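Per your request, structure below.
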């Protein structure tokens, strides 16, 4: 077995670690698809705090060099990917930014035990309590977005005490609840009856859907399905 001698780093800053990891990838010591050592192992090698390694690995992920998975480790990307920056939008600001008048309507608000499919999706316990809200956002009186949201009460207990009749869960969560990471899925679907009614389209019409989950450390904060009316455009900058 060939032993590869590693250069001794004089510094242990995150930039030094990022540079060294990138060099190993560039030299094909860690080829595309390779599962990289864990943060604890790298921190021991470089003689630094795990947080320092975490920042270096996060920047490599942001640069598209590696792919990080929650509880799945980090792998070298098969091909470099430029990362698109996505910020959770405030729907009110989004609508008003288009020069339209914003209005919000709460349709449903109930707290109960999380359904089985949500327990599985968010790794919740069998008796986790969640708050289920449905609402519509309007632009100049026309449906703009239908929001179907679940809030985890073990992480956000104050949600049960808040009156969402005038302030949307989107607006309240952005201003009141922190999150550390998020996952967003985009898809084109056929409108089911309840969504079609809310967006004033025909059943079966193609619509755009975004599903977003946010976490605070390893605890899920909220899961939301967002359905958009015809003509909606999403713009990402990179």
């Amino acid at each position: 077995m060939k032993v590869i001698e590693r250069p001794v780093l004089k510094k242990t800053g995150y930039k030094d670690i990022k540079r060294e990891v990138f060099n190993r990838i560039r030299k094909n010591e860690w080829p595309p698809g390779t599962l990289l050592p864990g943060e604890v192992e790298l921190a021991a090698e470089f003689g630094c705090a795990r947080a320092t390694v975490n920042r270096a690995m996060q920047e490599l992920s942001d640069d598209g060099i590696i792919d990080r998975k929650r509880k799945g480790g980090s792998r070298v990307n098969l091909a470099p990917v430029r990362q698109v920056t996505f910020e959770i939008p405030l729907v009110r600001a989004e609508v008003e930014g288009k020069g339209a008048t914003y209005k919000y309507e709460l349709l449903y608000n109930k707290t109960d035990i999380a359904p089985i499919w949500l327990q599985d999706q968010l790794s919740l316990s069998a008796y986790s309590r969640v708050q289920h809200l449905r609402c519509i956002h309007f632009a100049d009186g026309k449906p703009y977005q239908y929001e179907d949201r679940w809030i985890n009460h073990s992480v956000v207990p104050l949600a049960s005490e808040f009156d969402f009749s005038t302030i949307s869960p989107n607006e309240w969560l952005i201003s009141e609840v922190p999150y550390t990471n998020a996952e967003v899925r985009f898809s084109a679907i056929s409108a089911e009856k309840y969504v079609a009614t809310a967006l004033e389209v025909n059943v079966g019409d193609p619509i755009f859907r975004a599903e977003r989950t946010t976490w605070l450390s390893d605890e899920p904060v909220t899961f939301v399905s967002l359905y958009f009316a015809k003509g909606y455009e999403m713009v990402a900058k990179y």
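The CA atoms of residues 130 and 153 lie 5 Å apart.

Regards,
D.
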